[in-house]
Amino acid sequence: MIYDQIVLRYGDLLMKGRNRNQFEKKMQQQIKNALRPYPGVSFWKSYGRLYVKLNGQPHEPIVDRLKDLFGLQSLSPVISAESELESIRAAAMSLMTSLKQPPKTFKVSVKRAWKGFPHQSQEMNHLVGAHILRAFPDLSVDVRNPEVELRVDIQEEATYLFCEMIPAAGGFPFGSNGKAMLLLSGGIDSPVAGWMALRKGLELEAVHFHSYPFTSEQAKEKVIELTKRLSYYSGAPIKLHLVPFTDIQTSLAQQGQDNLIITLMRRAMLRITEGLALKNGALGIVTGESLGQVASQTLPSMNVIGRTTDLPLLKPLIMMDKAEIIAIAEKIGTYATSILPYEDCCTLFLPKSPSTNPNLHIVERIEAGHPNLTEMIETAIANTEQMILSPNKATTVQKAGEDSWF
Ligand code: ATP
Ligand code: MG
């Protein structure tokens, strides 16, 4: 065990004052949650940075976990030494000796944040570099393109030495930008949209529409699985709303407007989601729509569908190509689940030629002529079931009408 700490870097230079304090608080909470499975480690902070003390635990699994947290820019496992020349040299030696692949070239980059340290940065580069070169006769210095860059960060309380800068997920910490509802279908796109929304610091509640018994239990399992995966990234449990959509879907299918059924269904989904958002204090709706992908995602379709709600519709994938979306789905570990074959409710009633250019007045007229659409929407909201999901367990299943969550 060579490393004794991990340095976590975050922070946007544009963030000032209260915003920054809030960001830091959320960040720390998130790290605390993520480190819960590692009770042996502890963390502490100094301005603009957080440090995890490993206390003898291996760094790899902890680095793997932390690099997926939002709000962090990069992290490095470090050796810490006393801020004094000989201790720094000794630590540099252990670090170079520990490298699995001994490099042919290297350079030392010293940053002297503590101005009380007696040697200037440039001088330190030489003092440490020469010491290493004496011990490794085959090694040479290459300042432009070294195989290994040995970084030495001299702070007053200690000096940190490291060779690796591991990029982290970026974005904002979980929940630092308010709450939105995520329309989660079980397809490839919506989990990716969810991940991108979480990365921007949104807290999410997922909403899934099912048409049981036309849709299977496995389709629901799939969405549960995807929500659990997303909660790994949020580092906090995610509430999943399961909306019974069979009656509404069947009734809309009976309106005799085959090519508008997807438009009508989507509008009903948004109305229900808006109701759930109001009940749960969410201020936006995230979807996995991507411009032009299917009939309901043309600009005229989105115009007619979106007008049914006043909440902002957030569509992180709107300008992305499918290949780019799939690459993210693979990276975040949702792809394999998303491509499982079980149908969601929308594929069931898919008409032969869904409209790519629906007419708002006609759609509104159909809705106004429906005997009890608003009532059915209220019933669906009232009969929605909720589950609270964490990466490895479902903690609660709640039936409609019960109100005690925690
Ligand atoms: P996805 O891969 O996310 O299913 P898609 O390309 O298949 O997207 P659609 O099926 O037309 O596109 O759905 C567009 C968006 O509408 C989805 O990304 C999702 O946000 C929402 N949506 C569709 N079906 C459902 C559903 N059954 N429950 C919840 N949201 C849904
Ligand atoms: Mg879909």
Average pLDDT works out at 91
Task: Write out the distinct hetero groups bound to the structure.
Answer: adenosine-5'-triphosphate, magnesium ion
Q: Total number of helical segments?
A: 14
Range of helix content: 25-40%
Family: Belongs to the ThiI family.
Subcellular location: Cytoplasm
Organism: Paenibacillus nanensis
Enzyme class: transferase
Characterize the structure shown.
It is found in: Cytoplasm. This is Probable tRNA sulfurtransferase. With 406 residues, the protein is an alpha/beta fold. The chain folds into two domains: 5-167, 2-Layer Sandwich (VC0802-like); 179-397, Rossmann fold (3-Layer(aba) Sandwich). The protein is built from 14 helices and 16 strands. Helix 5 (189-199) links the parallel strand 10 and strand 11 (203-210). Helix 3 crosses helix 4 and helix 5 (189-199) crosses helix 10. The chain is elongated, with a radius of gyration of 27 Å.
Short key terms for the protein model shown above:
406 residues; alpha/beta; VC0802-like; Rossmann fold; 2 domains; 7-stranded mixed beta sheet; elongated; binds magnesium ion; RNA-binding
In brief:
39% of the residues lie in helices and 21% in strands.
Topology, element by element:
Layout: E1 5-10, H1 17-34, E2 42-46, E3 49-53, H2 60-66, E4 72-81, H3 85-98, E5 105-112, H4 121-135, E6 140-141, E7 148-154, E8 159-162, E9 166-167, E10 179-183, H5 189-199, E11 203-210, H6 217-234, E12 238-244, H7 246-253, H8 261-280, E13 285-286, H9 299-306, E14 313-314, H10 322-332, H11 335-338, H12 345-348, H13 360-369, H14 373-382, E15 385-390, E16 393-398
Parallel strand pairs: 5-6, 5-7, 10-11, 10-13, 11-12, 13-14
Antiparallel strand pairs: 1-3, 1-4, 2-3, 4-8, 4-9, 7-8, 12-15, 15-16
Bound molecules: adenosine-5'-triphosphate and magnesium ion (MG).
Magnesium ion is lined by residues 185, 187, 344.
